[in-house]
Amino acid sequence: MLKDGEFFMIRELHQKGWTQTAIAEETGFDRKTIRKYIQQNKLPKRKGNVKSKGSKLDPYKEYLLKRLKEGTTNCVVLLEEIQSMGYDGQMTILREFISPFREKPNKQSSIRFETPPGKQAQMDWGELGERVVDGKKQKLYVFVIVLGYSRMKYMEITTSMNMEQLMKCHMNAFSYFNGVPSQILYDNMKTVVIKHSPTEISIQSKV
């Protein structure tokens, strides 16, 4: 019987245009099994008289699949995000669900780019979907900044990504880190980059 993550992976690869043969080679299942589950729109029912209990992860799988499509497969980051949404399960369940979606490691070793202590940090926004706040539906965002040397991380959930909120999150992060990195890398965010062309990059003066 397929695990939930394997079923979703087969469906995802099929939607991306993979052939049944290619999916079979990637997952290790035979083509008959692949064909069977491609034709099913729902998870296969478990055999037996005992009614299986739902997983604590079930309410968050749709959100996790969205994040996986965006390229986020880091279990630590995903766990913190769904915990902020109410998930109270263990990391083990999440790892089992995410595992089939992770890319297989390249056999060739790679050298990690290291930065000196205090030199650099990377910052980006993430989306957590909509939630009811004070009786109104609002989008939730997560501010994430990671130090390049220690990989120490600060995260803060907000209802806005405007400049005022961005600066506030930075100050909270610096207080948490007990210091300020020399450089912070941004991914072409609208609140930071005013203009981006092949010959010119303009950034906000407050940054």
TrEMBL record:
GO biological process, one term: DNA integration
Keyword field: DNA recombination, DNA-binding, Transposition
Family: Belongs to the transposase IS21/IS408/IS1162 family.
Domain of life: Bacteria
Any one Gene Ontology molecular-function term assigned to this protein's record: DNA binding
Domain Integrase catalytic: 112-207
Domain HTH IS21-type intervals: 5-68
The protein, known as: Transposase
Alphabetized PANTHER family for the sequence: TRANSPOSASE, TRANSPOSASE RV3428C-RELATED
